[in-house]
Write a structure and sequence with these properties.
This protein is mainly α. The chain is built from 16 helices and no strands. About 40% of the residues are buried.
């Protein structure tokens, strides 16, 4: 077994690492002296990634009126921060989407993750958050720790799934009994190792907390609500049998009116169809 999340990730090998291009792009974007052309040059060395990015930014998912033909043009239209998030989301899906796993339906896993990302972005727009696209990425990767656990310790995760079903518990509760930690802890550690913003690993680590402080972050609250809504709507599945309970502190944090939920679900349905066609 594994002593802690760090040991599990060490045993997972290359699966826990991000492609070098992501770190090069991150370093370039964070360098104020780096130009659009230099960043485009880094992306241009990965022709498959560049083609995927242009396909995505020209899709109905983004809805730009004019066609975007080049990476420099995409950077100008999308912006540096959003481009970094888009690169990360694309690399994550390309890295893990082709993997097979006998216990977990990978396509269903990513359907849930994409839906959670979209719901998080919709909630972020409702809450007037400055960078709603970042919430899409947060939702997309919120269960990445669970995926690593399935790929690295399939027998233990199979045991956890069976026990969760028989004992009528949530999967992360049984993970703590089987492993001594849960997928939120693994995900938070992995995200921290990728040097992503603090909001990502804190929100992921706390997303399954049974009790939230009254000063819970907006990121954690939005991620928690998105996960609950998407489980309730049964959009994909990541191995969870039961819908997690909605934490009232998270609900109060976003100041969400119940009358808004049908409108958000309608918006989610529209975006989900487009997103799964593009990313899966």
């Amino acid at each position: 077994m594994f002593a802690n999340p760090e040991e599990l990730l060490e045993r997972s090998g290359p699966m826990a690492s991000m492609p070098e291009v992501f770190f090069k792009i991150t370093e370039a974007i964070e360098n104020p002296e780096c130009s659009f052309d230099e960043i485009a040059g880094i992306l241009g060395k990965d022709t498959a990634l560049s083609a995927r990015l242009l396909k995505i930014v020209n899709s109905p998912f983004y809805g730009f009126e004019r066609k975007i033909d080049t990476i420099p043009h995409a950077i100008t239209i999308v912006g540096m921060a959003q481009l970094k998030d888009l690169v990360f989301a694309t690399l994550i899906l390309d890295k893990f989407n082709g993997l097979t796993q006998r216990i977990l339906d990978m396509k269903s896993f990513w359907r849930h993750s994409i839906a959670c990302g979209l719901m998080a972005r919709i909630l972020a727009v409702f809450c007037h958050e400055k960078n709603p696209e970042r919430y899409y990425v947060l939702g997309l990767i919120h269960d990445i720790g669970k995926l690593l656990m399935f790929l690295t310790a399939p027998q233990n995760m199979d045991e956890a799934m069976q026990r969760a079903k028989l004992e009528e518990k949530l999967l992360h509760e049984v993970e703590r009994e089987v492993f001594g930690f849960d997928h939120a802890g693994v995900g938070g550690y992995l995200i921290r190792s990728w040097k992503l913003p603090e909001m990502f690993h804190q929100a992921v680590e706390r997303s399954h907390d049974s009790v939230f402080d009254f000063d819970v972050s907006m990121e954690t609250a939005i991620l928690h609500l998105s996960d609950v809504f998407v489980h309730a709507l049964e959009l994909g599945n990541t191995g969870e049998v039961y819908v997690p309970p909605l934490n009232p502190v998270a609900w109060d944090k976003v100041e969400l009116s119940a009358s808004m939920i049908p409108l958000m679900i309608k918006q989610l349905d529209l975006e989900f169809l487009q997103a799964t066609r593009i990313f899966l």
